[in-house]
Amino acid sequence: MKKIMIVEDEAAIREFEAINLKRVGYTVIEAGSGEEALELYDSETEGIDIALLDISMPGMDGFTLCKELRRRSETLGIIMLTARTQEMDKISGLMIGADDYITKPFSPTELLARVDSLYRRVEMHNTKPAAPPSDDITLGEFTLNLRRRTLLKSGRNIELTQVEFQMIEYFFNNPDTALDRTDILNRVWGSNYFGEEKIVDVNIRRLRMKIEDDPSEPKYLVTVWGMGYKWNTH
Asked: Sign of the C-alpha dihedral, residues 64, 67, 71, 72?
């Protein structure tokens, strides 16, 4: 069952989103506020795959709600919806744990494409076939376990979202290899992704905050100027 929670204070917009998502097979849970969304999320026994969050809501706004939901689950897919076009709103949402964003107004085609793309990643994360217990990739002080889908740094667990895990897995399978933004985007978000390449850069920033001793001077996840990024083992 594909389950999505829509959090939107404007009933007409919420209904538009719900109708289109139900039409393609999603089970939809609706909330008119951030506070209601948290109550629904905490009471939902079968789990929610994706949350579609409006940013501008009275009371608890979308940013605060995103933080609370991400604190509850690293694997929940989160898409931020905003009528604003300011770059910082998009970056802020991604930095606090959102997986993607859509700027209003948007078409049903774009909405469904972005939701379907994220759902596929969430499903892959949750249902990936078990790998042998020894299926680790170790690079220096880091160990990536593909069965448990965990990352350890000197034995300490680093919490990763499903997008972050896919990015790290790609880097660990290609150490000391420059990967351009388009390759990363296609590998993690899919070749049919509607959005922009800068989502890669923002997620790299978020990963550096988790793995680097000094995120402003990265020594593991380094920039390859004019191209993209690589995992440095030297």
From this structure: positive
